């Protein structure tokens, strides 16, 4: 099945119904994160700012990864002012967990019966295929401002994706067999993101409890690669700092950063 419709966004609805105070919309952009980071230095910009594009030509993922975002996918960034959001630096690692959880919850409600899960640190998977990724970045010139970049495969059928992507990704419309209204989906994600950021701010345990419940790695043997080396063992979920807990032959390891390169 393939859908080639351009998603029409209702920008008024997004501003009216969510915590977003201003919107920058583009037909095409290299990366919504790059545009949001460049706008971060403008003091007059109203935050939270939503940067939204129909097409991204150079979408970025974590590390040196690229993000494939054809027409019909949702690619956006939210620029936050951490001072006015009362998000202290020590809470920043939880922000990406909060974003992943927000997306996962909305996808579970949108495509009921499908077992969307979280892959640490902040991807959303359906089975062994990735549906969504999150890239949180801070503006070096503007230390109080954070950009939460989110890509979700919505109406972009994987039929039109390069073969190497088809093997590892999934899109919502391919799963549900229907087109999804991107404005409504984005509205729900922003509402849930606001709620999860509130959980981060107030330190309620609900964020981590929900994460534990939806963590796809728990109980599975994983390999986590980071600058300090690789760790292999059985995943025990995450702890209160958002670190991935791995029970290795030499004892338990806490991974605060890294890439899960293998799951068994
Ligand atoms: C990952 O999977 O490693 C993260 C992917 C993040 C992709 C989104 S799409 C919108 C925003 N702009 C970017 O350039 N990247 C993020």
Estimate the helix proportion, in percent: 25-40%
Residue fraction in strands: 25-35%
Mean pLDDT: 92
Please state the structural category.
alpha+beta
Shape: globular
Helix count equals: 7
Rg value: 18 Å
Largest sheet: 7 strands, mixed
Identify every distinct bound molecule in the structure, by name, code or SMILES.
biotin
Order of helices and strands: HEHEEHEEEEHHHHEEEEE
Spatially, the strands of the biggest sheet line up as 1-2-3-7-6-5-4
Contiguous low-pLDDT stretches (5 residues minimum) are 1-7
Number of strands: 12
Distance between the termini: 31 Å
Question: Nutshell version of this structure?
Answer:
The chain is an alpha+beta fold. It has 7 helices and 12 strands. The radius of gyration is 18 Å and the shape is globular.
Description:
The chain is built from seven helices and twelve strands. The protein has 264 residues and is of the alpha+beta class. The strands form two sheets. Strands 1-2-3-7-6-5-4 form a seven-stranded mixed beta sheet, sandwiched between helices. Strands 11-10-9-8-12 form a five-stranded antiparallel beta sheet. A hairpin with a 2-residue loop joins strand 6 and strand 7. The longest helix is centred in the C-terminal third of the chain and has 21 residues.
